[in-house]
């Protein structure tokens, strides 16, 4: 497994606006339970709900994630989340940690998540 810094650099290649690693809390899942087919099913349901609730932007973002997952040829993925003061991103990486497969991200309210200082 790569270090937090290595993973942040990999993600930053995909999302180059992120700035400095010190601005984020990085959570790296060491689970190998992120199955591509299961994720596609879950996110198709979430896309349907977003469309049904009139959130077209979220539906499009989820659609892009689904397409990326469908184009990924392996079955397992890795999961990383980034939390900043006004940013939250969920990233799915290849099984061997060398490529960002897909992501969802959004701006958040400072009070939406627990303070970054209290996250373990």
Task: Set down the secondary structure blueprint.
Blueprint: H1 4-14, E1 25-28, E2 34-35, H2 36-52, H3 56-71, E3 76-83, E4 87-94, E5 100-107
Antiparallel strand pairs: 1-3, 2-3, 3-4, 4-5
Helix pairs in contact: 2-3
How far do the termini sit from each other?
Answer: 20 Å
**Share in β-strands:** 25-35%
Helicity, as a percent range: 25-40%
Number of domains: 1
Largest sheet: 5 strands, antiparallel
- Average pLDDT for all residues: 88
Rounded to an integer, what's the Rg over CA atoms? 14 Å
The shape is globular
Number of helices: 3
* Structure summary, number of beta strands: 5
Output the structural class.
alpha+beta
The SSE string, one letter per element, is HEEHHEEE
Structure explained in plain terms:
The protein is α+β, with helices and mostly antiparallel strands and 120 residues long. It has one domain (4-110). The protein is 37% helix and 25% strand. The chain has helices spanning 4-14, 36-52, 56-71, and strands at 25-28, 34-35, 76-83, 87-94, 100-107. Strands 1, 2, 3, 4 and 5 form a 5-stranded antiparallel β-sheet that branches. Helix 2 runs antiparallel to helix 3 (56-71). It is globular and about 40 Å long. It comes from Chryseobacterium phosphatilyticum. This is Enoyl-CoA hydratase.
Essential attributes:
120 residues; alpha+beta; five-stranded antiparallel sheet; 3 helices; 5 strands; globular
């Amino acid at each position: 497994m790569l270090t937090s810094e290595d993973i942040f650099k990999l993600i930053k290649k995909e999302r180059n606006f992120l700035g400095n690693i010190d601005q984020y809390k990085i959570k790296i899942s060491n689970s190998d339970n992120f199955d591509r087919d299961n994720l596609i099913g879950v996110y198709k349901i979430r896309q349907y709900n977003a469309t049904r609730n009139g959130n077209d932007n979220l539906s499009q973002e989820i659609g892009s994630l689904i397409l990326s997952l469908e184009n990924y040829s392996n079955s397992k993925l890795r999961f990383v989340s980034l939390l900043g003061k006004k940013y939250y991103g969920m990233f799915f990486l290849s099984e061997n940690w060398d490529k960002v497969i897909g992501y969802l991200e959004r701006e958040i309210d400072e009070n939406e998540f627990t303070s970054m200082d209290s996250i373990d």
